[in-house]
Amino acid sequence: MNAAALTASRVSGTSAIRAPPRRRAAAVRAPTIVVSAGRRARRDAHESGLESGRREEPASLPSRRAVALAPVAAALLAPLVAADPARADTECTECSNSNSSLAPGDKPFVQSPSGARFADLREGTGATPQPGQTVVVEWVGYTSGYQAKKIESTRETDAPYAFKLGAGEAIPAFEEAVSQMRVGGIRRIEIPGELEEKLAYSRDPSQRYAVGPVPQTLGGRRALDFVLDNRTLKDFNRTLLFDIRLSAIRK
């Protein structure tokens, strides 16, 4: 008889055997499914739509949903396409690289020499802008590294962003992306949080919006300012995602 399972007590010269108390069945909890902020931003970007009219999903894009939005795409990344996305995944140590959480069928980002990551969602068929020309772009942005808050969408504000290429009027990531695009192209840009100040906006609030694109709404500015000013966040939390479409070139 197992002494650990039964308890014996002496009663009137006989041994009374007590069964051990029943244990309560442990509650079975349903597994928690966590969706990364970066993936949520990409999903929301797919749904917001930079293009007017019906939504279409480019053939090379994930088949999960129509990605006709504000996708970000472009052309002329040929010298970079040779990079191995799988290798980039293994080098992601701070989770600011969305290649580390791609779902089956998702199009990977290609990293440029500056550290910015691009994904061409649709190649344009028009001209490529030259330095000194004014470009007009539609864009949508997200704080993809933290809660995937929308910064802005020109589809909602009806205020396309125009800047002179090479004049330092736009954040470096926009300059680099647009300089390689053709009119009509759509490109997605991911700016790693650890390179945010180098490729995007200044951490100094007084200098932050000296370059564009500048959010036109108070909510958009608050979303961007929060991730840049909050000292409790890690660098990867400052990762930004933009989808841009090159609409026109003004000479």
From TrEMBL:
InterPro entries reported in the protein's UniProt record: FKBP19-like (IPR044208), PPIase_dom_sf (IPR046357), PPIase_FKBP_dom (IPR001179)
Its Gene Ontology molecular function terms? peptidyl-prolyl cis-trans isomerase activity
**Start and end residues of each PPIase FKBP-type domain:** 132-195
Its GO CC terms are: chloroplast; thylakoid
| Keywords attached to this entry | Isomerase, Rotamase
- This enzyme's EC code(s): 5.2.1.8
| Extent of Basic and acidic residues compositional bias | 44-58
Q: Which domain of life is it from?
A: Eukaryota
**Biased-composition ranges for Polar residues?**
93-102
Pfam family, any one: FKBP_C
- Region Disordered, as annotated, extends over 1-24, 37-62, 91-114
Q: Which reaction does it catalyse?
A: [protein]-peptidylproline (omega=180) = [protein]-peptidylproline (omega=0)
Q: State if DNA repair is listed as a keyword.
A: no
Which PANTHER family did the record assign?
Answer: PEPTIDYL-PROLYL CIS-TRANS ISOMERASE FKBP19, CHLOROPLASTIC (PTHR47717)
- Report what the protein is called: peptidylprolyl isomerase
